[in-house]
Amino acid sequence: MSRFYIGVDIGGTEVKTALVDENDKAVFAQNIPTESEKGYVHTINMIANQIKGLLDENNVSISMVNSIGIGIPGLTDGKSKIYKAPNISWVDIDISTEMDRHFPNTKVFIANDASVAALAEHHFGAIKGAKNAVMITLGTGVGGGVIINDKLYSGTNGIASEIGHLIVGENFYNCNCGNNGCLETYCSATAIIKYAQRLFVDSPCSKIIEMTDSKPENITAKLIFDAYKEKDLMAKIIVKRFVTYLSIGIINLMNVYDPEVFVIGGGVSKAYDLFIDELEKEVDERLTFKNAPRGKIVKAKLGNDAGAIGAAMLGLYI
Amino acid sequence: MSRFYIGVDIGGTEVKTALVDENDKAVFAQNIPTESEKGYVHTINMIANQIKGLLDENNVSISMVNSIGIGIPGLTDGKSKIYKAPNISWVDIDISTEMDRHFPNTKVFIANDASVAALAEHHFGAIKGAKNAVMITLGTGVGGGVIINDKLYSGTNGIASEIGHLIVGENFYNCNCGNNGCLETYCSATAIIKYAQRLFVDSPCSKIIEMTDSKPENITAKLIFDAYKEKDLMAKIIVKRFVTYLSIGIINLMNVYDPEVFVIGGGVSKAYDLFIDELEKEVDERLTFKNAPRGKIVKAKLGNDAGAIGAAMLGLYI
């Protein structure tokens, strides 16, 4: 009997669900709103209905499903518990128990969104075949997904791969976690915007002033990279700082995980072609051991569907 | 037929060799000088003789030996090559090929000294039974040994666990590796001495001035901790800085490896009881996720023999 894998990607605003067969063919349900403000039981109930509908439409019975994998925008223990998912305001909840009420005989796995993105890239995308690989997602925050010996590595308590919170320096503002100098305060889209806003008043001649209608609140990471493309000096300073700290982050990850390959995804990776040459250069300059080989750096291949498909892959990778 | 494991601990000045039986009973050869100035072929020849003598004395034939494990004070590819071992001036040499000339039918494994110390602690010592564990050795430098899923993790190119080169801030002097802000420039014995020497001239009332006969070159890490015990203000400042950065290092390692337990060894760990309370406090203050459990911190149990015994364990852990 053929086997199926279900993947659920819970985002801040929408939930995407995929049914993946053993030949890696995926079909998707219609997205539903997360509606996290109505509480997690409501969201889980809707997800359960979405899954049941998707199974019915495809004539698959739940007994043919190997496992349900769930990707969430936050921290989990890798088993059943969500410690914290700020964007959807879930704190200390037990998602697996709730899922068990709907699917009592089906295994449920949970992981953070960067980890499931890493699984999708490992199964179908840019890091396929790599025994050890690290995904770095540069978005609102900085996330990580780590493959060790062809399996997802999430550590003892599920917090391994929280690479956005590597402390790498001293910064002018604190991270949401309370610490100062976290990688995500240098390399996320948010970090790029905050640093640009800090430079704003002192850079009256920058194109960025015009592009934002002189309003610092209009700054986006995309706008900074657009100005960078046009050789704007302020944008150069901002991108230089982003690249410097991303290279430090990669050096640190090399010295702990030593992967075959780093894959860069997330919204900021849309500007990959603009920063990769500088990044390679700075990584090489900072190599701890100049005569040892190093992991290569590649761009993520998969788009929006990676979350749901990667979540489905949890059944194969845990 | 019973099986044996040979372990060789190559230090800066001496080589210690152990023969471990399958009941974990170890016997040692008489230490020999490393004599690295005579070249690595000379040293390997002497080690081979040492091993042969140890086998003869114990009536063990080489065919009963499962493997020979070698711990070196430097960076290896985990297979056969030593990239760099500064204390013994070995660069880009192939140690396994040389060993094969003496023991053509015996497997040879190599790893850095902190990794083999971690294996000894995992097999006999403070981290026994931990599925995921991280050893931090605080000595002349800062080294790391990482156990993931009960195996030694050394990454794709052997440089995983080079935790002394995690970049964690901006420091007043550069690391030997060329980078600025490496963990070992804050938390090694060398780092403690360098920072003390920097404070020396501005602290005329410190006990340390008297203890060193007013000579900054007489400062040792032990002396600083002795002064700390006597509540000397300068020593307090130095130990505070050491603890702060060690806590940052541990937070970073939590966010990537998330081990069940951290074990602290190396010369500086002799002062463990003096700094552990402050360290626990600072680690808790810096926890990225306050509601997630964290790995505990313990002191290494094994002494000088851990290197050779741990090297012997490479045959079990790779």
TrEMBL record, chains A, B:
Regarding protein family, the annotation reads: Belongs to the ROK (NagC/XylR) family.
Q: Which InterPro entries match?
A: ATPase_NBD (IPR043129), ROK (IPR000600)
Origin species, per record, is Acetoanaerobium sticklandii (strain ATCC 12662 / DSM 519 / JCM 1433 / CCUG 9281 / NCIMB 10654 / HF)
**GO molecular function of the protein, one example?**
glucokinase activity
Q: Which UniProt keywords apply?
A: Kinase, Transferase
Which protein, by its recorded name, is this? Answer: Glucokinase
Asked whether the keyword Isomerase is assigned, the reply is: no
- EC top class named in words: transferase
> EC number(s) on record?
2.7.1.2
